[in-house]
Structures are given as structure tokens and as C-alpha cells.
Amino acid sequence: MASNWKLCGICDYHQIITSSVVWCFECDEGLCGDCKEYHRISEETKDHEIAPIADNYKLPTDVLQVAQVCKIHDEKYELFCIKHDCLCCKKCVQIHTDCIDLTDINEIIKNVKTSNAFYEIEQTWLEVVENIKRISGNREDNLKWLENKKREIEAEHASELHAFLFIKQIEKDIAVEESVIKTDVLNQTKISCEINKSLQQLTAIIQKFGEINVSSDPCGLSIQKRKDRQAQIMVAPPTRIIDRLTVTLQKRITTEVSNVRGCSILPDGRMVFSSFSEQKVSVLKSDGSIDFEINNIGGTFDVVFIGNDCIAVTSSSFSNEINIIDIRKNKLRKTITVHSNNDGVA
């Protein structure tokens, strides 16, 4: 949104300062009362969407500063590239020649205010706040641990330190007494003090009592990410006409698995196939080679990725069970009895 949204854009172009009363989203500028009427009856602009300028005062500053024109070509955004997830102006098309998913932005933004995008953003922000609180708490615990460790070290070595300082003080006191005795007229007075040779050697060579070692180890705090648990598209792709769709064979993979009833693509590119007759689930790498298999789990029917590094495998009428398999540890996590036939799963 333009920075001078409080002023009428048309009047400002003619070097006339007039306050705007409405905002035109198509023209991306404010309009005063007179310009608004001309804008409303003009053939080119009569269908433009406008809103009271007072609504802008309710918007956060970050929203008002969002640019609606291309920063490179200084032209209005008109297209959206689904492949690169970015807005494009007409001149941007020159660098998106290989992109087949360039879509009219009006199709993309249709019903966006009622879409799942706002809910997802809100949940993501709440998640960020929660992670910051958890990090702050973890750092406070670490500081408390350091303080306690410091006290333990001080308590453990306090006696050695006091002994060392006491010895040094005795040496100073003896030196003073010896000087007094030497000047005394009574030569019979004697005083002596023999310091343990080990301590004398210690005080002569010691440079420091020890070292405080500071290490930095992983705290084990895991940061929660909503998108790791649930991959959802923030902007729903527009409805396409089926006659315009083209299908291209990308890759052919020989699974060597018979009677395949279900398949699923994992987020990391691996593929899962369920074999009903062989009673197993096969997980293949993206190149088609076997990653791992789970055997003897009954007649497997359909399979789907459910998040948290797990897949769910149905069994149709074979056992009326749904098996949950951990694809990170490559093992069966649990079995759920559903007391009914279960075929497809999504």
C-alpha cells in the first residue's frame, strides 16, 4: 500500500493537497470526494473495489506497508506463480518462461479472507510465542544451574583457598616480628616458624588454583513447528479447467511388490506401497530402491502418511485393524481394532 494513503493520489499528481476519503485497491491510491465520484462513473474504474479510508486506520502498520507493485519493474502485481510461490507483474513473465502455473491473481485472492490461511497464520504465531516462552524458560534454568554449580565449586575449594591465604598472612606477620626482634635490645628473645617445604614449593610455583571450564552442549529443547506436524497449503490453488490439464510421465518405478492396493508419497520423497496378498508394507527410496519393509502384518489394503513420522495402514476385511507404523524407527508402533471393514483411508 502506498505510503501517502492519507492523500488523494489524483490530486497529489496535480500538486494539490487533498485528504482522501476512500481507498481504491485496484488503483492502489486514495481518492478525495470529488475524485471518488469521477472514479465511480468512469468506464475504466467503475468496477474497482473501494473502501472507506477510515478502515486503513484500523490496520497494523505492517499491513499498510505491504507493497502491491513489483519492486523490480514498478508495475502492479497481476499474476501469481504457484511454482515459486511469488507475485508477478507482466514483465516478470519474462523470467518465468518455464512456469506453467502462472495464474491470474484475482483467482488466487478470491475468498482468501475466509480461507484457512488466516487460521494457519494465527496458529503459527501462537506457536512462535510458545516456543519463545519455552526457550526463555530453558535459558533461565541454565542460568540457575550455572549459579548453583558456581556455589558448589566455591564451597568445595573454600578450605584450600583460606589455607593458602592464611599461610601468606603468617609469612607477612613473621617478617614484621623478625624486624622488631632485630632492633630489640634483648637478644634473648627468639621466635621461629618453619613452613612445610611442600607448602613453600606450592606457594612459589602456583600461578592459579584451577580453571573454570565452560562448555556448550545441546540443551535437548525441541522447537515445535506446526508445518512439521501438518503440511497445509497457505494459499489454495485456483480451480483449473480439466481440459487444459496435461499429464507427463516423470518416472517409472518397478516395485517388485505384487497385488498393490494402496500407495502414498512421504514428505521426504519416499514411497509406500501396501501388498494385500504378501501381507506387507514396502517403503521405497525416491530412486526406487527398497528402504525397509514391514512383513506379516495381515492383508494390507490402503496406506496414508498421518504425520509424526507415522503411516496408517488399513486391512479391509482381513482383520478389521489399522496398523500404525513408525517410518523413522522402521517398526510397528501400535495396532487399532475398529470392529468393521476398513478399506480406503485419507
UniProtKB/TrEMBL annotation:
Residue ranges constituting the B box-type domain according to the UniProt record: 10-53
Cellular component terms per the entry's GO annotation: nucleoplasm
The keyword Lyase belongs to this UniProt entry's keyword annotation: no
Originating species: Mytilus coruscus
Any one of the GO BP annotations: positive regulation of type I interferon-mediated signaling pathway
Family matches, as PANTHER family: BONUS, ISOFORM C-RELATED, E3 UBIQUITIN-PROTEIN LIGASE TRIM56
Swiss-Prot/TrEMBL keywords: Metal-binding, Zinc, Zinc-finger
The protein's name: B box-type domain-containing protein
Domain of life of the native organism: Eukaryota
Any one GO MF annotation of this record: zinc ion binding
